[in-house]
Amino acid sequence: MARSNGKADPEVVAICARHQASDGPLLPILHDVQAHHGYVSDEAIQQIAEELNLSRAEVFGVVTFYHDFHREPQPTHSLKVCRAEACQSVGGRDVWAAASTAAESGQGDVQLEAVYCLGNCACAPSVQMDGRTIGRMTAERVSTLFSAGNSAGVPS
Ligand code: FES
């Protein structure tokens, strides 16, 4: 099949071929493309549309409808900072401020997200880095998460 830019991504072709015969192949294809590339690019959208004989707008509409699909490369690490009451009452505001400052300065390869309770209220203030919940967080320690780029060495 012809490509608008003449370059077919072989991985996208293989993913489409793997799912093309199944019912409702678009979502599994998008998930696999994102799992492989980390996001769904404009080129991938075009290619998927061509492979499935859909319009680019149809594929784009699905990608933008679901929040879990990313249109750009995402940071390697995810940091969730609890902004709910139990954490806010024992220093969570300082943790959020320090994390926001680090994120805005471009420190580390970290995606910062506010969440409202991590189920770790007894050890507030709490954060979660790459799925690992860490309690009794401080502004200093959260800054370390950004500079280290991971939670290794930070006690839970
Ligand atoms: S309120 Fe922060 S972990 Fe529950």
From TrEMBL:
InterPro entries: NADP_DH_HndA-like (IPR028431), NuoE-like (IPR002023), NuoE_N (IPR041921), Thioredoxin-like_sf (IPR036249). SUPFAM superfamilies: Thioredoxin-like (SSF52833). The keyword Chloroplast does not apply. Keywords: 2Fe-2S, Iron, Iron-sulfur, Metal-binding. Coiled coil: none annotated. Pfam families: 2Fe-2S_thioredx. The keyword Metal-binding applies. Its cofactor is [2Fe-2S] cluster. Belongs to the complex I 24 kDa subunit family. This is NADH-quinone oxidoreductase subunit E. It comes from Salinisphaera dokdonensis CL-ES53.
